[in-house]
Amino acid sequence: MSGEDISVLLDEKRIFKPKEELVNQTNVKQWMDIHDIKDDKELYKKAGNWEWFWEEISKDLVEWYEPYKKVVEWKVPYVKWFVGAKYNIVHDAVDKHVKTWRKNKVAFIFEGEPGDVKKITYNDLYIEVNKLANSLKKLGVKKGDRVGIYLPMILELPIAMLACAKIGAIHSVVFSGFSAIAFRDRVNDCDAKVVITCDGFWRRGTKVYLKQQADEALENAPSVKHCVVVKRTGDGIPWTPSRDVWWHDLVFNSPKECETERLDANDPLYFLYTSGTTGKPKGIIHAHGGYAVGTAYTLNWVFDMKDTDIWWCAADIGWVTGHSYIVYAPLILGATSVLYEGAPNWPQPDRWWEIIERYNVTLLYTSPTSIRLFMKYGEDWVKKHDLSTLRLLGSVGEPINPEAWIWYYKYIGNENCPIMDTWWQTETGHFVISPLPITPLKPGSASHPLPGLAADVINEEGKPVQNAGGNLVITHPWPGMLRGIHKAPERYEKTYWSKFKGLYLAGDVTRKDSDNYFWIQGRADDVLKISGHRIGNSEVESALVSHPLVAEAAVIGKPHSLKGESISSFVVLKKGVEPSDSLRIKLQQHVSNELGKIAKPDEIWFVSDVPKTRSGKIMRRVIRAKALGEEVGDISTLANPEAVDEIGKAV
Ligand code: WTA
Prior knowledge:
alpha/beta; 7-stranded mixed beta sheet; 29 strands
């Protein structure tokens, strides 16, 4: 460890107190004043009466078509929020704004990678959503039908999501960086009737031909009747006339008004697939009403959203961060958001700082991986730009190391902007553990569960632990809580609710310090976090094993200075197959084709066996310890202890 690292670790003990003048103007403080709450202690205490709290919170954020009869109905492990209400999230995200002054407020500032810019107002958004919603109806999409969306960061992506929600259809967005096969599996799992994609998009100066990937997926997706194609690059693309239709042809002449479907508040809004410990991703289900309240509340309080703010959540909409904090929450709050298509370091490492300066961004929300990337380029790129409009910063997706926290604070925030380190998951829908702008900050800690939310750290016996690593659990339901896994209720119950009765198991090892600050240490299960994105170890293993020359594979995550974790794999080849460098490259490419570039193994080691238990379970923990040169512990229960030595020799 370098001297610098040590000093940063010591600095972890530093506490950054919020500035008095900022505190008084915050949304949370104003709410406290209205509710006669004198300090944050009283706030957390009062919010402990969580049914009361969510009722109060919902009043300021959402408008029901018909009121609810009950705030919450909790029958472990299934929850309903705002029971009996008639609702549609699109009413709050779009419709309600066109009846106010926000009609002409900019909803999205879009910047393409080549530099093309388009701003759309809430009224523009309203019209575009209505036109597409009417068109989807014409294609036969009805309430409850699924629509697969495979689009990059262009305006048509939020428009498509909202158009589905408007008519009560369920969208299932698949990250445009995922492969054709990954898209196909997700489309088939949810039996999508229609898919929406585009000809291509720009990434790091070159074009990605997404339609070709979509075509490959659709060769084997029998439920899909139509493929709607956005023209982005304008290049010639393959076309299936009986199935494909251009977006612009479809919406041409489509009526500008479309009634929003009055749904039950607990009807599903979307499925979003995320990795678990098996090779098959889980289709996480979110519903309209509670999700709307939970996402809007958290954005409003944590990032203190004001009408004068320019919000930039620099995630991709293909992940939950983009669903909640690029699309739904900012729109419900009537915010102006930046939507950027391309790579952060294209054409130069100051593209982001240029964007912040150009649009006067006030709130920036990104991941530790991005921060570490910019750290690598150095602060001179930052100093070329005026970032003085920034007033709050955020981090998400993986633990932020204190060194990156301090750099972010110092160079991006100019020591003026508090950093909101928000812990949450695809399953939680919105932030659960996060500071508020009134919270004293400890670099590297996401601080406390937000008011109205409750989490704890417990040991294997289910007893709360402090100053030691334990299981992070959420102790009562929350509005954005997942409603299940599509077509897999048993997996839902087993994954989240079976280890500790009535408690939601998050799957993260966490420590609570003496001041009750939560320190997330990483996944407890076999799920990798690559650049903040979830990839199951077993998904990569299945992809490797699907290659005809591979007999077996074991995948582990290794600490990586930029990406948080890198993918290291141990591959057993079929009998008679000779290991070679060219095969290694082929296998890397194979995984990339199967799953997408983000899942491509950084390392492939050829071995003759991988350590297994007698029942045949691959011992990833042992492999990881050996590969990292750590203590492997007792391996006497292994069926093939000699395989451990081979791992040691291979790396
Ligand atoms: C990790 C992303 C530390 C954690 C929103 C969690 C974090 C998983 C943080 C969910 C954070 C997310 N500090 N770790 N602030 N935020 N994580 O579903 O391991 O892609 O369980 O949702 O990311 O990843 P997911």
